[in-house]
């Protein structure tokens, strides 16, 4: 074979082999650089979020101090929009939620269920947080507060100037025209308690029209007021009879209030203990009825002999117990007749096959047998009992025991 030809073939083989080696080398170099860039990107995201979170103060919602989400987000908006623009949208949402305190985040998370917090876009998250954690104040209320602004004695003029400027911008005073200022001043002048309903109605009308983008003139506001008064008058006309009946019933209840116990009955029908009045040192009425009772007493002096003697007795009793510091009320009974046997009902029962007549007393806790009846029954065996027996006056009564055997009662009314 020709040596020249062999040399040419050898050179071609070397050139192709070198070309393949260079391609392999560049592929390997590109893969290594790609992995390093990915690793660098992965490691840089947490570092960036950590650095941004250190610059942002946590949001704590407080309606009393007017710390709403809008004010907080306005302060740190550039951090989320400009400084964090290299982050993905999901990472910015995570950063925003991380800056919420525990209670605020829990309320937001419950609101967006069943969605996941990270599956919601950044702008939608901001809008939802504004809806949840902004103080709900109408434009009229803000403008009304502008008219009520006052400078405190300890407030600096520069601070007062900034406060006025902030309130006016929030209330959008620059959007008010001549009619808007007239309507605002018109409603601002309704300060009487009787005009509270009208004021509330007209504020609602202004808020509705402002939200719809419409302007209200002073004459339209006046017509709304007239319509409301007309409807209110018609409603009162329909309910007039009912109000009259209710007023009469209330007057009757007030007139029937007892002087002694404030119950719903006349003082003559009161069964409570006579009240001792600390103003006039007399019994029979409370302090708030003292003037009325004194007038009644002055009018009835001709027939008040017995009452005067009773008051003097009460004063003597009061001097007797002055050392104890307690008021003792005593009532002297000149003549009393107790008709205890007028109509009594008895129950005829058989106890251990022996007829016994019991006095029917629905307020008694136990039934007693005297010793003679017990002996007539054959003196049945009694068991010891720990029941303490008292009579109607509260005194203790001795008992021999109790019989727990069943009894067959046959009820029959008997009159003594």
Automatic annotation (TrEMBL):
PROSITE patterns: ASP_PROT_RETROV (PS50175), ASP_PROTEASE (PS00141). It comes from the Eukaryota. Residues 316-329 have a biased composition (Basic residues). GO terms for molecular function: aspartic-type endopeptidase activity. Residues 356-394 form the Peptidase A2 domain. Residues 297-329 are annotated as: Disordered. SUPFAM superfamilies: Acid proteases (SSF50630). Gene3D superfamilies: Acid Proteases. Pfam families: DUF7083 (PF23309), gag-asp_proteas (PF13975). Keywords: Hydrolase. One of its GO terms (biological process) is proteolysis. InterPro entries: Aspartic_peptidase_AS, DUF7083, Peptidase_A2_cat, Peptidase_aspartic_dom_sf. PANTHER family: CCHC-TYPE DOMAIN-CONTAINING PROTEIN. This is Peptidase A2 domain-containing protein. It comes from Ancylostoma ceylanicum. The gene is Acey_s0721.g1828.
